[in-house]
């Protein structure tokens, strides 16, 4: 079965305070988004790459990646106003033919070949796969500024991407979410959350992540990523 990597780059990067989306900012001499696309280009288990870009920048990024010679790139499409809206557009673009799909945040440009390979391999036996690393911090549940519980760290992990699914599974999960009038009240922040809420019987298999697979959220994170790339 073919595997398609979907690079989600629909965010505007408001917290960066820059006139362009953060995915287009330079990292080690090339735009941040190019690092994620290059990682899936190198991955032998990935057949195609679909990029979902912030609205208004799809043509620019399509030209950038075409010039870069990424042979697996199939298309660059406009994203939606939210992460889940961008994922919906990717699912619609992929059509009806069954495949495995890896959703990856462009804001994680240091994803490793080991993580990509582990996700692709896990989808041979599981229909939903997430990447996570154990939490080294104590996590508190807080309500109105007061700690009300401290769960055991043994059961806590920090989620990363890629997140992998059989296409029919993630499509069905989003169909159920769209039919739920309360979904907007408690929106999910990622695709594993959609599956866990609407198809809980499937479960989500966990693949080990990496502390290097950081998410670029604030300007200082770019400096950390630069240092990791030089290490």
Summarize the structure.
The protein has 231 residues and is of the alpha/beta class. Helices cover 32% and strands 25% of the residues.
Topology, element by element:
Layout: E1 3-9, E2 26-27, E3 30-31, H1 32-42, E4 48-53, H2 58-67, E5 73-78, H3 83-94, E6 100-105, H4 113-122, E7 128-134, E8 141-143, E9 146-149, E10 157-166, H5 167-178, H6 191-198, E11 205-208, H7 219-230
Parallel strand pairs: 1-4, 1-6, 4-5, 7-11
Antiparallel strand pairs: 2-3, 6-10, 7-10, 8-9
Helix pairs in contact: 5-6
Protein architecture, described:
The protein is globular and about 50 Å long. The longest helix has 12 residues, at 83-94. It has one domain: Spore Coat Polysaccharide Biosynthesis Protein SpsA, Chain A, CATH 3.90.550.10. It contains 7 helices and 11 strands. Helix 2 (58-67) links the parallel strand 4 and strand 5. It has 231 residues and is an alpha/beta fold.
Observed structural traits:
7-stranded mixed β-sheet, 25% strand, two-stranded antiparallel sheet, alpha/beta, Spore Coat Polysaccharide Biosynthesis Protein SpsA, Chain A, 231 residues, single chain
Largest sheet entry = 7 strands, mixed
Termini gap: 36 Å
Spans of at least 5 consecutive residues whose pLDDT stays below 50 are none
Going by CATH, the homologous superfamily would be Spore Coat Polysaccharide Biosynthesis Protein SpsA, Chain A
Helix content, binned percent: 25-40%
On the 0 to 100 scale, the average pLDDT is 94
CATH architectural group: Alpha-Beta Complex
Count of separate DSSP helical elements: 7
Order of helices and strands: EEEHEHEHEHEEEEHHEH
Strand segment tally: 11
């Amino acid at each position: 079965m073919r595997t398609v990597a979907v690079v989600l780059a629909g965010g505007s990067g408001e917290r960066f305070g820059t006139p362009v989306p953060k995915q287009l900012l330079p990292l080690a001499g090339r735009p941040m988004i190019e690092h994620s696309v290059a990682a899936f280009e190198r991955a032998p288990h990935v057949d195609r790459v679909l990029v979902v870009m912030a609205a208004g920048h799809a043509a620019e990024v399509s030209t950038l990646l075409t010039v870069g010679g990424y042979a697996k790139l199939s298309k660059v499409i406009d994203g939606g106003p939210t992460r889940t809206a961008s994922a919906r557009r990717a699912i619609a673009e992929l059509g009806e033919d069954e495949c495995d799909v890896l959703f990856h945040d462009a804001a994680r440009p240091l994803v490793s070949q080991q993580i990509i390979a582990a996700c692709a391999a896990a989808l041979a036996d599981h229909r939903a796969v997430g990447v996570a690393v154990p939490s080294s911090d104590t996590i508190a549940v807080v309500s109105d500024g007061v700690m009300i519980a401290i769960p055991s760290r043994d059961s806590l992990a920090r989620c990363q991407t890629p997140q992998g699914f059989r296409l029919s599974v993630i499509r069905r999960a989003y169909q159920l979410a769209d039919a739920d009038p309360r979904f907007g009240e408690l929106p999910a922040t990622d695709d594993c959350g959609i599956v866990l809420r609407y198809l809980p019987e499937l479960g989500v298999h966990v693949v080990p992540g990496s502390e290097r697979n950081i998410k670029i959220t604030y300007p200082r994170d770019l400096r950390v990523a630069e240092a990791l790339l030089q290490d």
